[in-house]
Request: fold
Amino acid sequence: MPDRSAPIGVFDSGVGGLTVAREIMAQIPNERIIYFGDTARVPYGSKSKATITKFTKQIVRFLMTQHVKALVVACNTMSAYAIDEVEKEVSLPVIGVVKPGARIAVSETKNNRIGVIATEGTVGSGMYERFINNIDPGIRVFAKACPLFCPLVEEGMLDDPVTDEIARRYLKELMDKDIDTLIMGCTHYPLLAPALKRLVGESVRLVNPAYETARELKQMLTYKDMLNDSPFDKQEKDHEFYVSDLADKFTHFAADILDDDSIRTSEVDIEKY
Reply:
């Protein structure tokens, strides 16, 4: 029988996966999270598939030493390029962020015109287009790489005129395509949701894959009889956070995103894995 009290491993190229962690904490509050952010090597979006796969495998090996019961690939680029390799390497349940977001977008669109904003790597992989068209070949998908969004989020520039102007330039091309649904295809991007919503207006539905991923994770754990049914006691054992660099900076950012001043972060030499 699986150990229901074992933690869930959540990982990302940096801080973006905290949006997924936040949703897991909200939707499955009994579960404990071990989070890893590869802050030394972020961003992943412009790196090759071989490099992304290598980095992903190193992170998975580290999380396996923490005795996690499931893995959440909380990065669209890693989900697009490396999730198949992760599934070959471990016997644990693995869930990415691409498929949950694509599924809800298909169910939401009314005019069959879906926009995707993501990193260069995710856009280049064509993963969203393939998965959406496997569900409904009649849907047109318009993808736009937004390489400056991740650095802006990592620098905490969530509410800044510079960010608004860059977002306006990126989104104009998609809005000209008459999309009615927009997938925030990078886990960093939900942190920019207020600015994005102002620009696209009420007529466009913003899809947050982080929310949908947490929802599917709960369903998967329930189906596999792995859901923790004991209340989470922070006094006994708290969530754990690890990064490959800049632990203090990450801690400050995570405290804001998760609304928790008790967060502590440890640095890991991820190259050892």
Remarks:
- Residues 73 and 128 are 16 Å apart (CA to CA).
- The chain has two domains: 8-96+211-272, 98-209.
- The chain has a mean pLDDT of 93.
- The first strand starts at residue 8 and ends at 12.
